[in-house]
Amino acid sequence: MDVCRFVSITSSAAAKLFNIYPQKGRLAVGSDADIVVWNPSASKTISAKTQLAANDFNIFENVEVHGLPVAVICNGRVSYTEGSVYATPSSGRFVPTPPNSVYVYGRVEARDMSLAPQKVSREPYEGETVSTADTTDGKQSCHETPVKEENVLPTQVSDHFHQRPPTRAGGRNMQESSFSLTGEQFDDRKYSRPSSRVLGPPGGRSSGLW
């Protein structure tokens, strides 16, 4: 990460996310005079005993970090230098953070606009058209799609099926083959009802027990 990228992540981009840029995160006329002097070569070990916070623990205990602030200038005044804080009470002020940051939601709006369907203007088609119906003597007759030979149902049970005798109850022997490599089915010609309503389920109806 180069110096410009480091400044952008720690200062400029953060100010843009909180929607307080260019008041914060920029060195320019009209912006707040907040400056951090950074030493990338300095290092230290984080510890709760040497931290400036008032709590007695630190989740980064004994972690060695590289790169430390040497001095902090807030609103034109030195607030921190050489490990000591020189901020005076009531010297800070409240900085409002307006919602709907353009840095965040402007990209979302631009993405939505780029993904939105766009109207394509075309001239009316005036070329040749093909009709799928013939008109003869004022009557319209549609072309019928020929039926392929392999789709025709067999007129009788093929010899490919095993002809086993029926069971004692008169039903079809379940050991008998019901399919063939030719694609024929044993009961292709058998009529079956599309649906049936069960009036007496196994075990009887249970509505009369309650």
UniProtKB/TrEMBL annotation:
GO terms for biological process: pyrimidine nucleobase catabolic process. GO terms for molecular function: dihydropyrimidinase activity. Residues 201-210 have a biased composition (Gly residues). Residues 117-210 are annotated as: Disordered. One of its GO terms (cellular component) is cytosol. Residues 2-77 form the Amidohydrolase-related domain. Residues 136-151 have a biased composition (Basic and acidic residues). InterPro entries: Amidohydro-rel, Metal-dep_hydrolase_composite, Metallo-dep_Hydrolases_sf. Its cofactor is Zn(2+). Gene3D superfamilies: Metal-dependent hydrolases (3.20.20.140). Residues 174-183 have a biased composition (Polar residues). Its EC number is 3.5.2.2. It catalyses: 5,6-dihydrouracil + H2O = 3-(carbamoylamino)propanoate + H(+). Belongs to the metallo-dependent hydrolases superfamily. Hydantoinase/dihydropyrimidinase family. This is dihydropyrimidinase. It comes from Bugula neritina.
